[in-house]
Amino acid sequence: MGEASRRKKERREGNGDPIAAIPGGPYLQAAFFCEKILVEQDSVVSFIRQVDRLTTTASGPAVPASMPTTTFTTFLAIALKSGEARGTHDIKLVRERPSGIRDNQPVFSVRLLFEGEDRGVGLHGPANLTFEEEGLYWFDLYVDETLMTRMPFRVIYQQAVARTG
Fold this sequence. Notes:
Blueprint: H1 3-13, E1 27-39, E2 45-51, E3 53-60, E4 70-83, E5 87-96, E6 108-114, E7 117-131, E8 135-143, E9 146-161
């Protein structure tokens, strides 16, 4: 059994990377992809239409058997609360492909200041995602190398072969 298959099997059986909160914080409040983000004049943020799947279609007289690389622009929303955490912490998002291959470079990484207690940080903005294969992708959110959550995103490939005359 290959390394990628073993990791996928371990995660299905619950023996893989556990999702464990950091004692004392910071704590995950939310993490998801959405279609649109509105920031009102009073700085209140609204997240519109949560997205966790993409259907891409190829059509014509000869369509590829496997999905061509597809780029999709969505918005990413992450909210963390400090709890007892203070000071700067590293936040990163890492993509895992359906084949089990994890990207060498994170989707993003940033160092943020946590002020403690109910104070937190909100990360939100556009995310240009590239998908090379059909299936279930996982986006893993880390704070200081601790896995906070896994965000699923399914890519579906449909073929529409056009018949002539």
